[in-house]
Amino acid sequence: MADPTAPIRLDPTGTSVSQREWQRTDPILHVESLRKYYPVQDQSIRSVVSRRRVVRAVDDVSFDLYAGASLALVGESGSGKSTVGRAVARLERPTSGEIVFKGTRAGSWRRSVLRRYRSDVQLIFQDPYASLNPVHTVAYHLERPLRIHHLVSSRKEARAQVLSLLEQVHLTPADQVIDKLPHELSGGQRQRVAIARTLAVQPSVLIADEPVSMLDVSVRLSVLNLLSDLVRKKELALLYVTHDIASARYFTERMLVMYAGEIVESGPAEAVTQQPAHPYTQLLVAAAPDPEQSLRSGRRTVRATGENPSLINPPSGCRFHPRCPHAMDVCRRERPPKFAVDETRWSACWLLSGSEAKAGASPNAAVRSQSASSVTPPSALATAQERLEEPTSWSVAHD
Ligand SMILES: Nc1ncnc2c1ncn2[C@@H]1O[C@H](COP(=O)(O)OP(=O)(O)O)[C@@H](O)[C@H]1O
Ligand code: SF4
Ligand SMILES: [Mg+2]
């Protein structure tokens, strides 16, 4: 019997190989069927006895992160994006699912390995105001992780490292920034300090959760460009979590679209935004047509009308069906599987089922070479788009 604690690597066919054979071309981080359910008490007036129920915040999410590449996780507020980030960074324990980091399965980690993982996988939060302690200087915030992880041996070395980190995030002249307190910096500068702090521990994965949504519009582009440069120069793997599909298109190579705890579409960012296959993605794209303009003008992303569904009692079948103008009977009955749109993309929508599209496309179709069985004839997308030719009946509203 296979040792369940053995380090594994999953190749495109799902075969496990030993860690010794793990290569840089393999995903740094492999996430498979991740679930995070939060227990809640149902104490509604109608329920005589309070019942334990769960919020299905993340339900069966899979993806890979690669060195030097960025992946966007896009969806409206409440769709489960931050929960994915926290579970992957192991700030919270997933309810189930598998995380394989550089070929090693998370379940087998000892405490010391988990500690190392938590510094290898760094989170950048939305709010740079809250993430820095107002009574400590920039130097303190950046020296601390260096000392905790024994990355410097003297005060002099620590200061030199901090100056170098500040230069890497373009906070120059660094010697004029190093002794400042957070309130002496702008929001954009504070977020750069927060990014420098994550770099201090030499991570291989960054999870940036809405990293610019609280910043002034004039600095959003430059902070995103900085992240993009760091991904390339330092060969980092970036998970960019955002509600803004326009910025995701602009800054990432691949994209996952999340709705009500599930991934509904996956593929190269350009293809997904230019020819969205899933009605929910179409709605997001229709609401935010021009990435650069929306970032520069600060126009708020338009939001779809309709309620986000309950994650305690999600809609049957396709969770999007109560809001979808194309909903069919099958949509209410059965959860759509992943249908391959082409050799790089899939979408979980029954509209693709009448074509030659095949169910069960690989969640990693966007980057892996495909086996013959998962390659979809181009007519699949054409069929879906024919059905979507009619003007869509949904409307969008500004925030
Ligand atoms: N600790 C928690 N307990 C119960 N429900 C939670 C908890 N954290 C998040 N949720 C719920 O999980 C869902 C997804 O939340 P979140 O991941 O923050 O979404 P997003 O980042 O996409 O806005 C929401 O319905 C939220 O209320
Ligand atoms: S599966 Fe049905 S309800 Fe869901 S997005 Fe597709 S057409 Fe709409
Ligand atoms: Mg969030």
Mean residue pLDDT: 81
Largest sheet: 8 strands, mixed
Number of helices: 13
Shape: globular
**What would you call the structural class?**
alpha/beta
Q: What small ligands are held by the chains?
A: adenosine-5'-diphosphate, iron/sulfur cluster, magnesium ion
Which strand-content bin applies to the residues?
Answer: 15-25%
Poorly predicted sequence stretches spanning 5 or more consecutive residues: 1-23, 299-303, 356-399
Strand element count: 16
Percent helix: 25-40%
Q: Which H/E pattern describes the elements?
A: EEEEEHEEHEHHHHEHEHEEHHHEHEEHE
Report the end-to-end length measured between terminal Cα atoms. 55 Å
The radius of gyration computed from the alpha-carbon positions, rounded to a whole number of angstroms, is 22 Å
Strand arrangement in the largest pleated sheet: 8-9-10-5-11-12-15-14
Q: How would you describe this structure to a colleague?
A:
This protein has helices at residues 81-88, 111-120, 128-131, 138-148, 155-168, 187-200, 217-234, 245-251, 269-274, 279-287, 291-297, 329-333, 379-387, and strands at residues 9-10, 16-17, 29-42, 51-65, 69-74, 96-101, 104-105, 121-124, 205-209, 237-242, 254-259, 262-268, 302-304, 339-342, 345-347, 396-398. The strands form four sheets. Strands 8-9-10-5-11-12-15-14 form an eight-stranded mixed beta sheet, sandwiched between helices. A four-stranded antiparallel beta sheet has the order 4-3-6-7. Helix content is 31%, strand content 22%. The relative contact order is 0.12. Helix 4 packs across helix 5 (155-168). The chain is of the alpha/beta class and 399 residues long. Among the domains are: 128-201, no CATH class; 316-391, no CATH class. It is globular and about 70 Å long. Residues 38, 40, 55, 57, 75, 77-83, 311 line the site of adenosine-5'-diphosphate. Magnesium ion binds at residues 81-82, 209.
